[in-house]
Amino acid sequence: MVKILEKILALWIILLCTVSCIQENEPVAADLQTGDPIPDFTVMMNDGSTVSAEQLRKGTALIVFFHTGCPDCQQTLPSVQKIYDEYKGEIGFALISREQGGDEIAAYWENKGYTMPYSAQTDRTVYHLFASSRVPRVYVCNNGFVKYTYDDSPIPSYSDLKGNMESF
Questions:
Q1: Torsion (CA) 31, 33, 37, 38 in degrees, nearest 10
Q2: Which of 136, 95, 92, 141 is nearest to 116 (CA)?
Q3: Is the distance from CB of 132 to CB of 31 less than 8 angstroms?
Q4: Is 19 helix (H, G, I), strand (E, B) or coil?
Q5: Is the Cβ–Cβ distance between 67 and 100 less than 8 Å?
Q6: Interior angle at CA 82, CA 81 and CA 84, nearest 5
Q7: What letter does residue 40 receive in the DSSP assignment?
Q8: Three-class SS state of 144
Q9: How many alpha carbons fall within 13 Å on the CB side of residue 5?
Q10: Longest Cα pair distance anywhere in the chain, in angstroms?
Q11: How far apart (Å, rounded) are the C-alpha atoms in residues 97 and 93?
């Protein structure tokens, strides 16, 4: 009986992770596409700074929506960290959680050794300006417009993002 309950619990956890990463009730049609302008938003970062769309419209920017419990986000974030290490100070960055609080993100960041500033959003208000479902969401932008987009299919690699940065 205990083995059956353990299997049911394990399947339940897998189902919750999958649903939290990919499935939502809204259609994907509302997602920003290549050529779309960056929508207006302002977020507070964990380091106390603010990032706004106005700032990100000046030059090149990388906007990433994530949830640390999402396996696809876990695959994406190391590539984003490498890009951050290489381009910080040269391009704008906005890493924004999709409905995840700061304590949980801070623990994950510390465990992984990440140094990228992030904005912990406990709701989906900012996220819904960009997408209706799925994380990760990665937007490579230039001069206020989306130039490249990624989600969980395909997950952007470091070389994908580096190539995008070098195209401007």
A1: 50
A2: 95
A3: yes
A4: helix
A5: yes
A6: 60
A7: P
A8: coil
A9: 2
A10: 60
A11: 13
Please give the Cα distance from 12 to 113 (Å, whole number).
30
pLDDT tens, position by position, 25-74 = 443 336 999 999 999 999 999 999 999 999 999 999 999 999 999 999 99
**Among candidate residues 106, 47, 116, the one with its CA nearest the CA of residue 81:** 116
CA distance 34 to 55: 19
pTM of the model as a whole: 0.84
Residues of 110-148 as b/e, b for ≥16 C-beta within 10 angstroms? eeeebebbbbbbeebebbeebbebbbbbbbbbbeeebbb
pLDDT for position 132: 94
**In this structure, are residues 68 and 37 in contact, taking their beta carbons and an 8 Å threshold?**
no
Count Cβ atoms below 10 Å from residue 166 Cβ, excluding itself: 7
Query: Do 93 and 77 form a contact (C-beta atoms < 8 A)?
Result: no
Hey, is 41 helix, strand or coil?
coil
Distance CA 162, CA 12 (A): 37
For 56, the 3-state DSSP assignment is helix
The one-letter amino acid code at 78 reads P
DSSP 8-state symbol, 168: -
